[in-house]
Amino acid sequence: MSQTSVPASLGRLDLHKVLRIKTESGFAEEVRRGLLAQPKKLLPKYFYDELGSQLFEAICLLPEYYPTRAENEILGRYADEIVNAVEGRKTLLEMGSGSAFKTRRIIEAILKEQSHLLFVPVDISATALETSSRVLLQSYPALRIEAYAGDYYDGLNALRERPEGTRTLALFLGSNIGNFDADEANKFLCALRKVLRAGDALLLGADLKKEPEVLEAAYDDALGVTAAFNRNLLVRINRELDANFNPRLFRHYVTYNEEVGVVETYIESLREQSVQIGKLALDIRFAEGERIHTENSYKYDLDGLSRMAAETGFTRTRTWLDEREQFSSNLFLAVGG
Ligand code: AVJ
């Protein structure tokens, strides 16, 4: 695959932009395909433009959105145990690092055991990546960062050799895996397993199945921050693709499908209307109540997580929970060749 790699070297930070060439038109093409599909859909990775990334940071502070706090509690309490569950000197890899706030607990635990650490974050938002990297380097003089701005697969494809004699601890936190259905999750974990060696490990954050009321409140908060985060996709399409969505004529809609264990998020048209997308030369019609599917957030139980590990070249060797048992941090040990 063709990639642009423009490592901006800033002292202890190398920032690689590995977004596939044609990523700009990639967004345009995926919006076209999604809005012409029946039912209409858009991909959650496109939430994270600059405003979307900031709105997500705000979501993490909402009283209803417990996953961030629960995972932070687990990492605060068990980081030493987690880090010591992987033997030897380590390199730290993180998929979807965002602000990397929770990562600090793991970095600090590793730096108790070794004098230097290479941190390799991958994130879709180059701005979030550069900001968080600078903050981390300020805090930890023993840290070096090799950052990759791109989607998960761009990042995995571009990864360089890890420093010799180190084990890789990969982080996939925040229930980011929840955006994947079972097949996509298996495919992603297999791809990640391929860049790891036997004895390396993945710390997988997975939100747990629970009462529908708690889950629906977490994704439809009283202040409407999540609604703004979701509808910001329309604002992004207006800006980048010269469209004329009126976000006031669409609402945020969330439902928990308990059978499957997935919170489904949609943007719903409040009335019959049509929207023009200049750059795509498209006219999109909406019926009253018609929805665009924008996100799945899958919820897990421990048996399902064990199965997922076994199917993708890992074993789930340890699991840590928060006090209220809402969220799980799982150590997946890479097994076999
Ligand atoms: C970043 C995918 C883990 O699904 O919980 C939060 C994104 N969407 N509120 C999630 C999200 C609405 C979040 N992940």
Sheet of most strands = 9 strands, mixed
Q: State the helical fraction.
A: 25-40%
Instruction: Let me know the average pLDDT.
Output: 94
DSSP strand content: 25-35%
Secondary-structure element sequence? EEHEHHEHEHEHEHEHHEEEEEHEE
Q: Which strand order does the major sheet show?
A: 1-2-6-5-4-7-8-15-14
Distance between the termini: 25 Å
Could you list the spans in which at least 5 consecutive residues all have pLDDT below 50? none
Ligands present: N,N,N-trimethyl-histidine
Count every beta strand, where a strand is a DSSP E run of 2 or more residues.
15
Structural class: alpha/beta
Shape designation: globular
What is the overall number of helices?
Answer: 10
Radius of gyration, CA atoms, in whole angstroms: 20 Å
What would you note in describing this structure?
The chain has 337 residues and is of the alpha/beta class. Helix content is 36%, strand content 28%. It contains 10 helices and 15 strands. It has helices at 23-36, 50-59, 66-84, 103-111, 126-139, 152-158, 182-195, 212-219, 225-241, 302-310; strands at residues 8-10, 13-17, 40-41, 90-95, 117-123, 143-149, 167-172, 201-207, 250-257, 262-269, 273-277, 282-286, 291-298, 314-321, 327-334. The strands form 3 sheets. A 9-stranded mixed β-sheet has the order 1-2-6-5-4-7-8-15-14, with helices on both faces. β4 (90-95), α4 and β5 (117-123) form a beta-alpha-beta unit. α2 (50-59) runs antiparallel to α9 (225-241). The model has no long low-confidence stretch (mean pLDDT 94). The structure holds N,N,N-trimethyl-histidine. N,N,N-trimethyl-histidine (AVJ) binds at residues 59, 67, 174-176, 178-179, 219, 226, 295, 297.
